[in-house]
Amino acid sequence: MKKILLLFSIFIFTISPLVIAKNEGNATMGKKKIELRISEPDAEIFMNGRKIGTGTALIVVPKEDCVVILVKKETFLTEKIEFCNKKEIEKLPKTHTVQMRLDDSYEATTYDENINRDITLKCKNIDKDQAWKLINQILLTYVDVIEMTDKETGYLRTRWTSKTYTQNTVRTRFIVKESSAEPLVFKVKLVSQQSEQAQSNPNNDQLFKDWDRVLRKYNNAVSEFQVRVK
User: Fold this and answer.
1) Are residues 99 and 111 both part of a single domain?
2) How many structural domains are present in the chain?
3) CA torsion sign, 13 to 17 to 18 to 22?
4) Could you say which of 48, 83, 103 is where a domain stops?
5) Are residues 59 and 130 in the same domain?
6) Which range of residues forms the domain containing residue 212?
7) Which of 207, 217, 173, 166 lies closest to 192 in space, CA to CA?
8) Is residue 17 packed enough to be buried (19+ CB in 10 Å), middle (13-18) or exposed (0-12)?
9) How many Å apart are CA 40 and CA 133, to the nearest integer?
10) pLDDT digits (tens, 9 = 90+) for 20-72
11) N or C: which end of the chain has fewer CB within 10 A?
12) What is the CATH number of the domain that holds 35?
């Protein structure tokens, strides 16, 4: 009996590596390799959510499977490609080149260090009535609708205005607050936010986050307040 068990153990030990090797071979058989090249050499390449390279990468697509490739670089649109290694789908290429496109939301905006922070306006030469009238006049050259205004408390807020792009939506608003009556001081904030998605609802706060860029039409707004309201 012991002799039979010993022979059986030797048989299992001998055959197991062969079975494992065969299974591993079956798992890799039929895989396809694609050399991916990006027009921007510093663009990051992700496969199924994991970074696999910069500028170039070797894509391995298992048999009867698909992989999703994302190519990312700031100021450029994110490119998404899906490669499928399946019989019913057209044969995969050996090489594939991605020509990245400029992000139109970047082209329509400019960086501004004064965005999304309070800018102090000290009124030394005008009273509150004059300052309030001037603030409203300036705002109405940039926006069409003032959503909330209260002269007594010195609070004013414009409605969100939004602009949508290929892969982004940018929303903008002004907020004005009286921070001191004596001396008379107002604070103005130009709020600029992005959703990184096209066609986002500008009233859905959860979709947006602050952005240090602003649409070019508002580029001189803060400096105009600083020059005229004083």
Assistant:
1) no
2) 2
3) positive
4) 103
5) no
6) 107-228
7) 173
8) exposed
9) 50
10) 334 433 345 689 999 999 999 999 999 999 999 999 999 999 999 999 999 99
11) N
12) 2.60.40
